[in-house]
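Work Package 3 (structural annotation) set out to generate three-dimensional models for the target panel prioritized at the project kickoff. During this period the team completed the workflow that converts sequence records into discrete structure tokens, so that structures can be stored uniformly alongside our sequence database. As a representative example, we reproduce one entry of 236 residues exactly as it appears in the project archive.
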Amino acid sequence: MHKISIPQRIVDTVVARRGTAHPFATLDPAKTALIVVDLQNGFMMDGVAHALCATAREIVPNVNRLAAAIRSTGGQVFWIQNTHDEACLESWSNMHAMTLPEKTAKRVESMSEGTLGHAIWADCDVQPEDTKVLKYRYSAFLPGASDLPDILRARGLDTVLITGTVTNVCCESSARDAMMTNFKTLMVTDGNAANSDAEHNSSLINFYLTFGDIMSTDEVIGCLKKNAAATPAAAE
């Protein structure tokens, strides 16, 4: 698990700008979505992954705890699957041009629908009432990259908790775009995983300074339970 390190100077800057260290502590559980980004074999399984992040395995228990808390307090859970299709070879050609051909081939192999790599990690607690969403870019909130924003709005969800892997690419990209498209956005500090503590903490700091809130799994669950108890209808 990552060692979280957010300098006090950063917290002080956030408080000076927003008046509180946690602007979304008052979140409404019934309007909250847990977004689980890319916890797939293609990032987590030895021998299958095209971009292995071993630390992602360590956050699964926290993600499962968050998912259970979200469901029990009236929110909804979304499992996002990074997906390759042939169209992106042309429409996202600049990304592929920066990648060695053998790396692109491995990505295609592990991120195409129906492959072992594309499947969600087996230890993730996916329930029948949860929703799976395919995304075709790093960000799940980039216009045209997935149906997620439209689904959230149609269901009256205005707050998103970002978890998954990797913190500083797909998770941060999704979190920034979520905020920019007017969702209240929070990154879970111990519910995201990167390839080093430095990358993980840098991403959290960048996001926290300007784009939204950050909290630990325990802090988020505490807010969900407290706010649900204050508004019983949220958990019905």
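The longest strand covers residues 184-193.
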